[in-house]
Design brief:
The structure is a homodimer of 243-residue chains.
Chain A lengths: L3 H9 L3 H7 L1 E5 L1 H9 L5 E6 L1 H6 L1 H4 L3 E4 L2 H7 L8 E6 L13 E5 L5 H13 L4 E4 L9 H6 L8 E4 L2 H6 L6 E10 L9 E5 L8 H4 L4 E4 L11 H11 L1
Parallel strand pairs in A: 2-3, 5-6, 5-9, 6-7, 8-9, 8-10
Antiparallel strand pairs in A: 1-4, 2-4
């Protein structure tokens, strides 16, 4: 049974202001919730699920607080068009300061504003073993439900930070900084790398001039046809796959 | 001024049934509409736009029928959250039979159901100079407004067909058929190609068994991290960029 006050708590977490205030976010669907439980971080605070799902996931749930709810109750609290068995209240990750960049690939996102793009980029980073993403303050909020959904569970593994990008880049010494642009060096001519910072920009404006100044090497995906640009998540996938 | 009957005509084109019946579709926003006008195909039947946009695009419009509308009228007919200056009624392209596959790269989509993914794939195809995409009947409708929007104008250049995939593949002789799967040959070990058919599958189920049987070579994007899969549009981008 779902009490009224809990429904309200869940609904308010749809807003960034309340997510920040409470340090919580909402994750939905079997895929995302089980990846968060499996990560063993202990971040999942409370689970609301249908009877069937609870039965199938007893072991995974361990001592997590669970409330069995009806399909109708799930519809009331879900933000999805098609509610999917389970919803969890999750504690935000402690991600105040990015780790070292040496010896690793780190992504930088300068004002990537579409939640679906950010979520897809987190999923791509996880595929290629990239462990951290540093975002400008005007990039989409990683705890936005559309972002959480689009990560398909990778949010449990890839660390996402919000920083002042030019300031942060200036502190990263002895490491190559690459920028994805439309008029740089053909990526297919560049040697494979195992460390470096790769910067991607806004969906329509690209990388801001202030951030671009910090880059050592400009990269471009060679074009054979006529499209003006590529979707930013697709560009991240292609560049990570080449480097 | 917009007459009532025209508003109704435009609204009914939101449904696939009426789009097919009339052989028309709706395109919105300066980017998509100008690419369609520039393509010179003569498919743009009627344009509804704000005064400013009409003034700036007199030359591009040529003899196209144009109706000047107010922002309020545009809001009434637009399917976008943020209506954007111009909307056009466009004739569907005559695309009953795909062209030859020899000497070219052709994409095959087996049940790609998300309109955003289909639109993004069309945009990627256009970037890499791929001229035609053959889709199964249960792939998203190319004239769905979300698809048109996500192509960013590339819908004017890339030809999209709907066929019975196993039947069509059986007719394609003397050409390699590649399938993107999770357990195939590492794409980075494969030689570059300039002709071939590349098959991509549904967002969650992948390529159906019946279609997979028709493939000569299975391809996989190498994984270093833990994500279970990649977004299909991202996979198209990575594979086209490698091959």
């Amino acid at each position: 049974m779902l009490v009224k006050s809990k429904i309200k708590d869940i609904q308010t977490l749809g807003q960034k202001k309340f997510r920040e205030q409470e340090g919580l976010f909402i994750a939905e669907g079997p895929k995302v919730v089980s990846e968060l439980l499996e990560s063993g971080s202990g971040n999942v605070k409370e689970v609301f699920a249908l009877k069937d799902w609870i039965g199938e996931n007893k072991k995974l749930l361990g001592k997590t607080t669970v409330t069995e709810i009806s399909e109708k109750e799930l519809e009331r609290i879900s933000g999805l068009t098609t509610p999917n068995k389970v919803l969890a209240i999750v504690q935000q990750f402690d991600r105040r300061t990015p780790g070292a960049t040496k010896g690793k690939i780190t992504l930088v996102l300068d004002a990537v504003q579409d939640p679906g793009n950010l979520g897809t980029i987190i999923r791509i980073a996880d595929w290629f073993g990239v462990e951290q993403i540093v975002c400008s303050a005007d990039t989409a909020d990683v705890y936005n439900s559309k972002v959480v959904q689009a990560t398909m569970g990778s949010i449990a593994r890839v660390k996402v930070f919000y920083m002042d990008i030019p300031v942060w880049l200036a502190e990263q010494h002895d490491i190559q900084k690459y920028a994805a642009v439309l008029d740089g060096t053909d990526i297919t001519t560049i040697k494979k790398i195992s460390e470096g910072i790769i910067i991607f920009g806004n969906e329509s404006r690209g990388i801001s001039a202030e951030v671009l100044k910090c880059a050592d090497i400009k990269l471009t995906i060679p074009k054979k046809g006529k499209a003006e640009s590529l979707n930013v998540a697709v560009a991240v996938g292609i560049i990570l796959s080449h480097l």
